[in-house]
Structure formats: structure tokens, C-alpha cells
From TrEMBL, chains A, B:
The keyword Oxidoreductase applies. Signal peptide: none annotated. Gene3D superfamilies: D-Amino Acid Oxidase, subunit A, domain 2, FAD/NAD(P)-binding domain. One of its GO terms (molecular function) is oxidoreductase activity. It comes from freshwater metagenome. GO terms for cellular component: cytoplasm. This is Unannotated protein. Keywords: Oxidoreductase, Thiamine biosynthesis. The keyword Oxidoreductase applies. Residues 6-351 form the FAD dependent oxidoreductase domain. PANTHER family: GLYCINE OXIDASE (PTHR13847:SF289), SARCOSINE DEHYDROGENASE-RELATED (PTHR13847). InterPro entries: FAD-dep_OxRdtase (IPR006076), FAD/NAD-bd_sf (IPR036188), Gly_oxidase_ThiO (IPR012727). Pathway: Cofactor biosynthesis; thiamine diphosphate biosynthesis.
Length: 373, 373
């Protein structure tokens, strides 16, 4: 059996595109298989690279991984923008955590205490100066905390840049879905929806919520879709920071881009493969956002969309061998697919080349709490 | 000067398409001029044919006109569907007027008293039986009244059917905008955006909110755009009736179609030619609708759109000669363009053929109150 490529990447989301790029840079010949690369969960995502704000109680074991992933982004974005000449909307304008009522204030104070205990730098904002820090915020919110170093990226621009990088590096693209994957001592074979067969030396499965649709001899890790509604608003630039709000106990965020776009999200729903945009969820997102930022009312509502985040059994990413030596899975990145993509790709490329990886331990320990309990 | 057609119709909204159809049936050769016929205010409209529910205080002088227009629809829809073989979503499932709080109840009782004084048949609904009459309604609303005979039509299906009828009747279509109109003793001449010139014996200007963009020797009646936000929801059929609600003093309506579509509207905004879908208005429509019909939350939000209703100085339709004997205007139909289209077309065809029209007086008296004051 002769291989078409050294590596087949099944899935063209944030992880698949990044793995394909980094693998091609490492000297491998790569084929990427995805009917619509750059769409899916990546297309809906807001692109927050928020290791501190994403540090939640009970997820202490994720913290080191998220921090390392966040640090990795700075050089990653420079390299991608440099290679392709494309802007990916990378910005470091910080995050404000704000709470509306007294209960929201107490909850934010509790989590900031926790974030500080993990070593994150979280500044108090004097509410008397709030209108200077973030003029668009409601003046009667009960608490505001500032994370100076949080950054974000535009996932759609990222997708375009990664596709351009793949083309520059001669990665082949097959836009038919991967139906089944088999492996032998000689290599791997993928049958596509159009009936064609592609052979490779090794394969990486990065199919997110669709991982379990792939037919394989041994079962892959169970991944479930976690539905999220996201709105896109447009207008003159309204916010100086990314806002993460608690509004009567409900979480809402707004990511402001320099283009005037605001990404408003996101619901977290266990509804299987339901991609329907529901009136009630759109209502709740708008309701929560306008309660803390009245100027939201004047923005144009450009898009309502749904993304399916890939969740593993414990919501930590799964990067491991499915078939020793030939087939890797890199999936289950849940809310943090964009943030983790560069680090996951580094680990995958190390594993493919049978090199020890400095990142391995971070991914393993993200699971350890749950696996040992 | 030789004419291309007996009649040039400038504008392809509800009025223009209907006038072109009826004029071609009367034996005239017709050219319709519109860059995107069937779009505009017509595309956004809900299609309520609601002479009773649209009878408001201070608009008594419209009542006879709206009633006649409503009666005319029954034969009109049969004829159009018969000629084209196309379904236009004509349905007569009645309207429920409902109010949420005590103030809403008082206001609805006042307007029902008024509607009854005008001869409309409005039935009381015993709130104890409400869940049988309309199971989707909130059980704690304060009042419900039923208009058994109200009907509605799907304006987009209507547009498609009228375009098909025009083709059957050999109406020419020119899809470049009409820039200017001149008339002489010999006929009329229209210059289009693409530089071409079309000649006709007579012309009808039915350009809605865009009427005053047409260059003419003498000014046409002033028409302003009245912005309305409209949402389209989709799901299993939720409602048995059209619902017109008062929710803490704000008006909202929901028109249910057999296809499962619900058209939810509509805001009334004096904002000039602003076509932006605003987050705040989408929020308010959803907020009001779900307060009286909780099941709205589960529907898919399929579309958010804006229409520009054409309003005259007194919001009554303007059907009159602009240049005696050659150029008619038929515009300013405001909220009632779909309802009035068949009657307006009858009047226009009579006027074009210098026949006395039984409808003339209805249109004149719709204005008389304001003109004499």
C-alpha cells in the first residue's frame, strides 16, 4: 500500500487546521479532509483567549494547561500572520468582569479570590471611575474587576489565515466527509463520502462533536455536542474591553473587535445535534447584554448562529493514541478549542514524531482529577 | 413619439404588481419598472387583512375603505390563485385581541366598543374557556376578544403569484430603477438608471417610500418611510388564530401560517431610510410576544427584517392624477398596502380608462377629515 501523504488530518476545525499547518511545517506531507473546513464550532466561536477568566472552581487542574496555551498564542499569532500576511484580529485589550446585582457581586468576588489564589493578576476597579474605564457599562453595576492581559482573536479570520497557510505549505484538501478509518501494519486508509479512498502513514482525528460519526475498528473517545447560541452585532466601537458579565446569576460575554463587531454569547445547552436558533435563547442573550450595556439596543443585529462545542466525558481535551503508532485523536476541546489549538498542535506533532513533549503532562493532568475520582 | 406600452407602472410592490395585473387584464399593454419587484415593504409585511382590528380612534374615515378592501379580497384571491395555479396563503382563521395587564384590558375594551360602534362583529371570549379557544396563550391574560372574520395572506407568496400572473398576461418587466418621468401631449417618457428610455401612453407611480426619488416636472405627494421591524419564526403550528396583543401598552401581533411560520411584528419608527435591524427592537418584539405566548421561546428564529411603509401626510392612501390625463400616483398605503391593493388597482384602472369608479369616494373620504381640519 502506497501512501498519498505522511499524515491524514480528519476534520478542519481550529484543531485540525492548526495541526495540519504545524505538521506540514515540520516536514510531513499532509492531506486535510473536511467538507467545509473552517466552519463548525470554530465559525461560531468568539475567540476569547482567556486563561484567567476561564479558571473556574473545580477546574483547578485545567489552569496550568490554559495558562500555557494562552502564553503560546503570542508567538503563534505572529508566526501565522507573518507567514500569510493576513490579519487574524489578535488583540490584547483586557477583560472586565462585572456583576449586576448583589448576588452577582458576591459570586464574582469569590471567583476572583480563587483566580488570585492561582496566581492570576486581577485588579479591582473603583466603581466611581467605572465610566472612565468602560463608558458603555451601566453605572449601577455592583462590581467590576479587570484582567489586564486577556486577549482574543477573530476565529473566522483565523480560519482564513490557516487555510492560506495550508495552501502555502502544499497541504492537500479533500472536501468530502470522512466516513471510515482503518489501519494496518502498513498505514491508514480513509474512505470518504464520495467513495474515494485516501491512504496515509498516520492519521489524526480532529472531528470535534462529529468524532463518533467516524467508523473505526475500535471505538473513539465519546464526544458530545454542547450547543451554544451566539449573536453578532455591529456598530461604531462601543466597548474598550471584553466584558464578562453576571446578570442575575446568568453568564454573558461580549467580545469587541476593532471592526465594530461585537460577538455576544453564549448559551450552554445539552441538546444533542440541534442546530436550531431558538427565539427564547436569542431573547435571553439580548436581555442579559442590554441590562449591563444599554447601548447594545442601538447596535445592528447582524447574525444569530449556533455552535456545537465538542465535550469529552470530563470536558477536558482528549489528545491520545487511538491505535498505537498510527491514529491519534485530538478532540473534546469544549469551550477552549481556539485557545488550545496551538498547544494541541505542538503536542500532536511531537507525538507523531515519537518525541517526548513538554506539553504532555499539562494535557494529562487536565484529566487527572476526574480520572482518579 | 411611439409608445412601448399603453401603460408604464413605476414600482413593483403590492400596489404596482396588482395594478399591472389588473390593467393587463383590462386589455392594456403594460410595462412594469422595478429593480427588484416583489421586495420592499411587501416582502416584510405580515399580510393581515384586518379591517376591524385596524379601525382605530381618529381613523373613522378610513373604516369604509378598509371594509370594502377586505370584502374585495375574497374574490381577488380566488381569481389570482385560479389564473396562476399558485397558493397565496389566503386564510380566514380570525383574530384574537388580547391584553396582558389591567391597563391593556381597559384599552382593548375601549377600542372594541369603538369597533362595535362601527358595525364590526367582535365577540367576547370567556377567559375560563381561553385554553380551549387558543391553548398557546398565557392563562393569566386580562382580556380576550375575537374577530371571527379577519383573514390574512402570505405577501411573499402573493408577490410570486402576481409576477406569474404578469408573465401570463405578457407584461414586460424592466429591472432598472426609474430615475425620471416626463410627460408631453403625446405621452410619457421614463428614463431608467441604465440610461435607457421607455415610452408609454400613460404612467402610474407606485413607488411607495421611494416615490420622491423620482424626478418629475411637478412635485409628487410627499411620502415618508415608516420603519418596521418584523421577525419570522418557524416551528410546529402553535396558534389557531392571528393574535393582536397589548403588552403593558405596547402593540404586538403574531400571524400564524399553515406552514408553521409565524410573522411577529411590528415596530413603528420614524427613522427615514434606515434599514438597520436593531438589537433593541428585536429584543422588544421577542419580549412582548413571549409574555403572552410562552411557547414562542421554543420556535426557531428564522429571519429578522425591516420594512419601510409608505406614509402620506395623513397616513391615508393617495390615488390621484399627478399630471392630468397621463400620470397617476397610487402610493402612501402605509400599514395597509396588502389589504388595499385590489381596491386601489380597481380604482386606478377605472381612472386610466376615464370611467367613474364606485371606489373613488371611499379613497377621497379617507382623507377628508384631515384635509378639512
Amino acid at each position: 500500500m502506497s501512501s498519498d501523504s505522511d499524515l491524514l488530518v480528519l476534520g478542519g476545525g481550529a484543531i485540525g487546521l492548526t495541526v495540519a499547518w504545524r505538521a506540514s511545517l515540520s516536514g510531513l506531507t499532509v492531506t486535510l479532509i473536511d467538507p467545509t473546513p473552517g466552519s463548525g464550532a470554530m465559525w461560531a466561536a468568539a475567540g476569547m483567549l482567556a486563561s484567567a477568566a476561564e479558571s473556574h472552581f473545580g477546574e483547578e487542574h485545567h489552569v496550568a494547561l490554559l495558562s500555557a496555551a494562552s502564553d503560546r498564542w503570542i508567538s503563534f499569532s505572529r508566526e501565522l500572520e507573518g507567514d500569510t500576511g493576513l490579519n487574524i484580529g489578535y488583540e490584547q485589550n483586557g477583560t472586565l468582569l462585572v456583576g449586576l446585582d448583589r448576588g452577582d457581586r458576591l459570586e464574582i468576588e469569590r471567583s476572583v479570590e480563587f483566580q488570585r489564589s492561582l496566581g492570576h493578576n486581577v485588579a479591582d476597579v473603583d466603581l466611581e471611575n467605572l465610566s472612565e474605564v468602560e463608558p458603555a457599562l451601566l453605572s449601577t453595576i455592583s462590581v467590576a474587576k479587570q484582567l489586564h492581559n486577556d486577549h482574543h482573536v477573530d476565529p473566522r479570520a483565523l480560519g482564513r489565515a490557516l487555510l492560506a497557510a495550508l495552501e502555502l505549505n502544499n497541504v492537500s484538501l479533500r472536501t468530502s466527509p470522512a466516513d471510515s478509518l482503518t489501519q494496518s501494519a502498513l498505514g491508514v486508509e480513509v474512505t470518504l463520502g464520495d467513495g474515494s479512498v485516501i491512504r496515509g502513514d498516520k492519521a489524526v482525528v480532529t472531528m470535534g462533536a462529529h468524532t463518533n460519526f467516524l467508523e473505526t475498528a475500535n471505538p473513539l473517545p465519546q464526544i458530545r455536542p454542547v450547543k451554544g447560541h451566539i449573536l453578532r452585532l455591529q456598530g461604531p466601537v462601543l466597548l474598550k474591553h471584553t466584558i464578562r458579565g453576571l446578570v442575575h446569576g446568568r453568564s454573558v460575554y461580549l467580545v469587541q473587535r476593532k471592526t465594530g463587531e461585537i460577538v455576544l454569547g453564549a448559551t450552554v445547552e445539552e441538546k444533542g445535534f440541534d442546530r436550531t436558533v431558538r427565539a427564547g435563547e436569542v431573547f435571553r442573550l439580548l436581555d442579559d447584554a442590554r441590562r449591563i450595556i444599554p447601548g447594545v439596543d442601538e447596535l445592528e443585529l447582524v447574525e444569530t448562529s449556533v455552535g456545537l462545542r465538542p465535550g469529552s466525558h470530563d470536558n477536558a481535551p482528549v489528545v491520545e493514541w487511538a491505535e498505537e503508532g498510527r491514529v491519534l485523536v485530538a478532540t473534546g476541546h469544549y469551550r477552549n478549542g481556539i485557545l488550545l489549538a496551538p498547544l494541541t498542535a505542538d503536542l500532536v506533532v511531537d507525538m507523531l514524531q515519537d518525541r517526548p513533549s513538554i506539553h504532555q503532562e499539562l494535557f494529562v493532568s487536565a484529566h487527572s482529577h476526574h480520572r482518579s475520582s
